[in-house]
Amino acid sequence: MHDVAAAPTSNRTFGQIEFYAFCVISFAGKSMLLIRLPYREWPVNTFYTCSLLLFFYLYFRFRQKLAAPAFVIFSLAAAVAVDILGNKLGLYGNPFGPLRDYDEFAHFAGSGFSAIAAFWLLRAGTRRMGFQLSRGVLAFLSTNVAFTYCGWYEILELWDELFYGDFVRIHTWDDTANDLFYDFLGVIVFIAAAALFFALTERSRGKTCALIAVRLKNLFSALPGDALAFFVATTMFGLCSWFEIFRMFDQRWSGRIHLVGNRDSATYLQYELAGSIALALGYVVARKLAGRRVLST
To answer: What confidence tens digit (pLDDT) does each residue in 126-158 have?
Structure first.
């Protein structure tokens, strides 16, 4: 595994556009994989997953000059394999160890494995931009990014039912919020393990390149506006996802009714995501307007 250095200033604009295009394509491709994942034959899902992993590896290896460690590629494959194996072996709907259903384990492990890739990508990507996030900031932001994708998956399940309508993806009133709870537990555990691993490797290797140190106190002044907007959106949506979890536990423990239909939480999530994105875009606009005022004075 190689440390990453800051990218040269030449061709930076083209590189940003290319990176944004890659993000859109890979995000759409992964979403299309997930939206019908439980109801495809496993060879189709395997081929689809391998194609996405190859696309991911080739882009970072040859366009960004970043060699993804083998365990990152394995983690991305394992995140999908947990679900494929559960369907293939008929584990869903049955207790799994101390858990009441294999689905809870699948969300814990699948989200956890995905979080490892999010941690590495955020660490490598920011270093490629010339920034070195502190361990706390890196863990916090990567948790938000990974947990946001968990919430997005729950929205995809809703859209699967609404726009395809041939399968049931959300089975009970607490299905979505319960999935999010085990998603979050998996993200926390796996990111803690990833943070420990990289901390040990950095301690033995030492600093190899000069990067701008980013701590919580200079986070908003150090990072570029587009990155900050992304982190604002993921943080806000993560808080909204936790709000759905709190409502589930409150209904279970106190009997107060917050959620009635099976799709209630997922329906709220899609609007909360839209609101989080709007807030992030508003932050970008406000930041640019403030910058122009400073230049004009």
So the answer is: 888 888 899 999 999 999 999 999 999 999 999
State how far the Cα of 247 lies from the Cα of 267, in Å rounded to an integer.
Answer: 14
Which residues touch 297 (CB under 8 Å, ≥6 apart)?
none
- The number of domains in the chain is 1
Q: How far apart are CA 99 and CA 92, in angstroms?
A: 12
Place of tokens 């806000």: 236
Structure tokens at 116: 């490892």
Q: Say which residues have a Cβ less than 8 Å from residue 149's Cβ, sequence separation at least 6.
A: 114, 118
Domain of residue 131, residue span: 12-296
> Domain for residue 7, yes or no?
no
Q: What is the chain's Cα-based Rg?
A: 20
What is the rounded end-to-end Cα distance, in angstroms, of the chain?
Answer: 47
Q: Examine residue 6 and state whether it is found in any structural domain, yes or no.
A: no
Instruction: Classify residue 143 as exposed, middle or buried by CB count within 10 Å of its CB (0-12, 13-18, 19+).
Output: buried
What's the pTM? 0.88
Chain segment 222-245, per-residue pLDDT in tens? 888 888 899 999 999 999 999 999
Tokens for 285, please give them: 């606009």
Cα distance between residue 41 and residue 184, in whole Å = 28
